[in-house]
Amino acid sequence: MKKKPETLSDPRVLLTEAGEQQWLDQLLDEAAAQQREKEHQALPEAARRPAITKRPRKAA
Amino acid sequence: MSAPLTPLLAAAAFGLQVPENVPLPAALLLVERQLRLLPHEVALAFDEAGTLRLFKVGGDSEVAFTDEELLRLRDSLFTHNHPSQSFLTVRDIEFACHHDVAQLRAVAGPMVHVLTRPAAGWPLARCRQRVATEQARLRKRFAHAGADRALARRQWNAFAHKLVVRLSLPLSLETL
């Protein structure tokens, strides 16, 4: 499971250079996921339903 | 059970020479010349007399401290290295403010970026507020799919410079 982004205000930790870049990536990943969810919720109900695909007919 | 290593012994076990009974500037110079060669981050805190209070070796993404260790940081001269030779990070600045160190130093190759506690003390609340505002701005700007992450990283790193200026923090550069 992906680690939840740490807040920069956690006083017990000094992020290394690499750690701070990882933290930033995770922050932006989280923001992007929230944005996608927001856009999804804004769609009309019909558009939110998964598309129904027809089963292929059995060969006679 | 054996007693925990003193910071001096821990540093020696790591292979770092920390001089004893020498003035602080000489101790810092000797230690920081060794730090500049290390491939990963190491942090040390000295008191004004040049005595080593704390020695910590960083992991891949963080240097973690216990509560007791954090208490030892107050009024100390805290030094660490940036193997990629970069400027202070936003986290460095927030860390200095939060733990009320006398100085936070980052060894970047042959140079040391030195942030000194202002006479009026660290502006922790203003620092946090500005960091939170910048985080929110980046989240908003770079949340869409296909956002330029490299640009976001550059902006975040540049923000560390801006933070020092906007908080009017005393910054100097020393040569090793």
How would you summarize the topology of this molecule?
The complex is a heterodimer of chains A (60) and B (176).
Chain A: E1 13-15, H1 17-42, H2 45-48
Chain B: H1 7-14, H2 24-35, E1 42-46, E2 52-57, E3 62-64, H3 67-71, E4 77-81, H4 90-99, E5 103-108, E6 111-116, H5 124-141, H6 149-166, E7 171-175
Parallel strand pairs in B: 4-5
Antiparallel strand pairs in B: 1-2, 1-4, 5-6, 6-7
Helix content of chain B: 40-55%
Uncertain runs of chain B: none
- What string, H for helix and E for strand, traces the elements of chain A in order? EHH
Secondary structure: number of strands of chain B: 7
Structural class by helix and strand composition of chain A: mainly alpha
| Largest β-sheet summary of chain A | none
What is the typical, i.e. mean, pLDDT of chain A? Answer: 76
Report the largest inter-chain contact. A-B, 24 and 42 residues
Strand content of chain B: 15-25%
First and last CA, distance of chain B: 41 Å
Estimated radius of gyration of chain B: 17 Å
Quaternary class: heterodimer
Radius of gyration of chain A in whole Å, from Cα? Answer: 21 Å
Q: What is the terminal-to-terminal distance of chain A?
A: 47 Å
Sum up the overall morphology of chain A in one term: elongated
Q: How many DSSP helices of chain A?
A: 2
